[in-house]
Amino acid sequence: GRSFRPEGTKITFPNGVVVGGENVTIMAGPCSVESKEQILLSAQQVAKAGAQFLRGGAFKPRSSPYSFQGMGLEGLKLLRDVSNETGLLVITEVMEISQIELMLPYIDCFQVGARNMQNFNLLRELGYVRKPVLLKRGIAATIEEVLLSAEYILSGGNYDLMLCERGIRTFETYTRNTMDISAIPVLKKLTHLPVFGDPSHGVGKRDLVPPMALASIAAGADGLLMEMHPNPDKAMSDGAQSLFPEQLEKLMEQMRMLAPVV
Ligand code: PEP
Ligand code: MN
């Protein structure tokens, strides 16, 4: 609850970036790591736009087993290499307990995806790790369920936790999900944890990402997780919701008018 830390949790990363402080933190990059060239170019574009974290999945939770499943360990190594070159931090998704040890040397933050928000064994294990975790809201999870999942990680002793609204499934089909902007101020009120918005998965269409990113910041988000691809039309996953690099740059300027973005 908020009363545990009325001033809110602040998470300091190795390069001095603080999440949950005065500044809004931007995590951007492709849905998946696809190749050395693709992730290096992505990192350069993300750094140029002024974001702090490079995102990119090496282990991908795909709806179909026949879709691209990610580059695995090779993808983790590429993420670390290009982030060191560009001065970015790395956030990437962990899908199962056996991946935790493997990932630790290569990453700065674990991402728990919507599909694993109630993978309680994974959450419990992440409570014992001393590395920050960003926990996404499940596809049909209530706020109460998000909070109880967060409690699995916190109760293990890992307080470096961020929550993320990424859209929920409703009767509406025009957008991929329904981005519940109200979850942002609700979670800010109920917890001391930094709260992020993921407008990319929230709406699923790139032209709707900038307005929902700005809305998330106006609603009090501590940061945003967004998909950007050097060539979205060729992306191996989530191309339709990935921003073009120029769009990310323009959006960063607009966000700076609303809040300090590091
Ligand atoms: C992702 O960030 O690429 C992802 C799979 O997100 P989610 O878990 O929110 O669907
Ligand atoms: Mn994605």
Automatic annotation (TrEMBL):
The keyword Repeat does not apply. Residues 10-256 form the DAHP synthetase I/KDSA domain. Keywords: Transferase. One of its GO terms (molecular function) is aldehyde-lyase activity. It comes from Granulicella sibirica. This is 2-keto-3-deoxy-D-arabino-heptulosonate-7-phosphate synthase I beta. The keyword Aminoacyl-tRNA synthetase does not apply. GO terms for biological process: aromatic amino acid family biosynthetic process.
